[in-house]
Amino acid sequence: MKYKAYSLHNYLTIPQIDKLDKQFIQDINVVGSVLPFKVNNYVIDELIDWDNFEDDPIFKLTFPQRGMLDEAHYKEMEASLSENTDKIYQKKVSNGIRLQLNPHPAGQQDYNVPEIDGVKLSGVQHKYRETLLFFPSAGQTCHSYCTFCFRWPQFVGMNELKFATKETELLVKYLENHHEVTDLLFTGGDPMIMSFKVFEKFIEPFLSDDNKTNIQTIRIGTKALGFWPYKFVTDKDADDFLRLFERLQERGINLAIMAHFSHPRELQTEVVKTAIKRIRKTGAQIRTQSPVLNHINNKADIWAEMLRTQVNHNLIPYYMFIPRDTGAQDYFSVPLIEALHIFRTAYKQVSGICRTVRGPSMSCFPGKVQVVGVSEINFQKVFVLRFLQGRDPNWVGRPFYAKYDPNAVWLDDLEPAFGDSFFFEEESVNGKKFSYQVS
Ligand SMILES: *Cc1c(COP(=O)(O)O)cnc(C)c1O
Ligand code: SF4
Predict the structure, then answer these.
(1) 310 part of a folded domain
(2) Is residue 16 part of a domain?
(3) CA atoms in the 13 A half-sphere facing the CB of 214
(4) Which atom, in ligand 2's list, is nearest to the CA of 141?
(5) Tens digits of per-residue pLDDT, 23-52?
(6) Ligand 1 pocket test: which of 130, 133, 320, 387 has the largest number of ligand atoms within 8 Å of its C-beta?
(7) pLDDT for 250-297, tens place per residue?
(8) Where among 41, 74, 98 does a domain terminate?
(9) How many domains does the chain have?
(10) Residue 52 belongs to what domain range?
(11) Measured in whole angstroms, how far is the alpha carbon of residue 285 from the centre of its chain?
């Protein structure tokens, strides 16, 4: 299949669009001016059920919906579009709204960017000791956008190949000096949007005899299996990618494809099954993750089916996330107690083989916090929480307690059950005292 993408300026040419009434079209225009909108022909033709699109999870996952903006923001954006104002003014309005939607959650901009020789490595985050997160600039877009993700197109209009080489040089230099880093995690956007020629530049140094880094696992965070499995099957450089995956294994580097699947439907097409088989043949692992999302997958049965199908297809369930405090969080958010219920109800109806999934987990400023359960201590109902990952490695695994709150959707909503603060708020990071409630 040949890739074809639709965005705000051409979506009216989608063949199935006549199913949408005027109001839907208007909502796409208004909400899509603030939140990301791009959808491709595979998602439209193979994943969305157009006979029932109003309730379709993949439709809601990719097409902007009115409820994703609050009423005031909707009206403001709608007015600016209808008043025949110029594009610059409209951009100002949409950027203004975006800024109010916490576009850089979890202190990403200020706290996690490492330096080398006094130069900030933009595009790199080193938050957890063993794992470096890398955002190649050529991977800052995706095959389709998920409406829950706060990401507006940020493609850089420069010579990608040249830029990739420069980025790689700095990255490798940093890794040579930081042998505590064993895992390199490529993320984006979607790194699997890159052509082979560009992507190869990032991997070559780890295949070379001069490799002086301590990278033992390379992970690629990608939604390509969900939104464009042809990447590994019929795209013109599909075989080159698979060969590169093989070479990593031959070099003794473990390759883990961190695949995002939000709904079992994404695992049902023939082409995704073929793509999975082809990747697994190279020796690479495929691990899976998704947030639990209102309107999309907030049912235990959906998760149980998803976990079972994944394991049947030889995938390893990894994380269930709680949606980040950004973008259309109000539309997608699920109270912590509900996320916990979904997790446990799904977890207990699948076999131990599927229970490699961990969660529900919040990626917040201090670390990845798992909601373990609800308990009662000294006649007080509490949430039991623990760090799956921490800014300070000593925090990992340490349980802590918050007052039970049935409405809480994020760590910021919680209060310590005992004392005035959580244990990690007392401690400092890199010599700086911090509160996790940074905006
Ligand atoms: C989740 C995450 C990682 C990877 O953590 P693992 O627990 O090793 O999967 C690395 N860096 C950041 C910033 C993360 O959010
Ligand atoms: S594929 Fe990933 S990065 Fe891209 S829009 Fe979806 S969640 Fe965001």
Answers:
(1) no
(2) yes
(3) 10
(4) 4
(5) 999 999 999 999 889 999 999 999 999 999
(6) 133
(7) 999 999 999 999 999 999 999 999 999 999 999 999 999 999 999 999
(8) 98
(9) 2
(10) 5-98
(11) 18
